[in-house]
Amino acid sequence: RVCFAVPSAEIMALRGAVMTVSRAGRVHIKVPTHQMAPKASFSSAGFAMPKLPKPSERTKFFAGVAAKLAGAGLGVSFLLQPFFGSAEDFYDYRFITTKDPDDLAGFYGSEDFMELFCVLPFMGTLMMRGGVFDDEGTVHTTGLPGEMLVSMEFSDEDDEETGSTLWFNKRENFKDVFMGMTMWDMTQNFGFHTLPDGQIEVYHHGVYFHGYAPPFSLIVRLVFQIHAMWLVFATEHHIQNYAFTAEDEYEEELEHLSRTNKPWNLLFNHLIPDMMYSMFGIKLSSHRSKSENE
Known about the structure:
Blueprint: H1 11-14, E1 18-21, E2 27-30, H2 57-84, E3 86-97, H3 101-108, H4 111-117, H5 121-129, E4 132-133, E5 139-142, E6 147-158, E7 165-178, E8 181-194, E9 200-211, H6 216-241, H7 249-260, H8 262-280, H9 290-293
């Protein structure tokens, strides 16, 4: 006696089937083709979607706190916008040098200064190498957010007697546009002029910053305010110690590193060696320029 447990859905398909049993005990069932059960179509009926776990009370608490802080921060940003969102003469930094004015004019008028301006190599690649010039000479590059438009204007004056540069100015304008709207607009001056005693006074001057999209424009204003302090420090350190003095390939490499990756140069060629010597008396081999070693 042979018993089969056949699903009810297949009973109708087995009606009219021929079953044979071989001597070896194998069972063979032959179902006529015209009586084969049709293929069942998939249906989501009867299937329950898995329920997501409910957030804990602790998660709800922190989510509520985060939402309140975000709302408070947005509100405060709108309150601060009239006081800090826009400013005229928002920074002015200067230093004195005795470098050749023609060399300084070439430095500020070329990509050498922009490499210092970008702080890190990847920022230089993003801003300068990824930029596109239009017919008016404006650079279109990645903005914060949207698209940033960068325009530059150069002016200078030469000494009629010596022919050297008396003063030089590079005026840069940065305008960020997102979805057709100006998010922020900033103009800066970089240059120098010759003092009566023959020394050169270099200046970095923030002409104005106008922000129109708080809280984002407030953050950008703060970033550029900090960046200006870093830039004048890095530029003075580079000009006084590395620029215009390379006499061989090794010194050219030092000058290139100082210009393209100033944080690395300061950390591994100055800060760490100085700390190791002052704290433990260990003098590490540091790569410094001749003027610094002297």
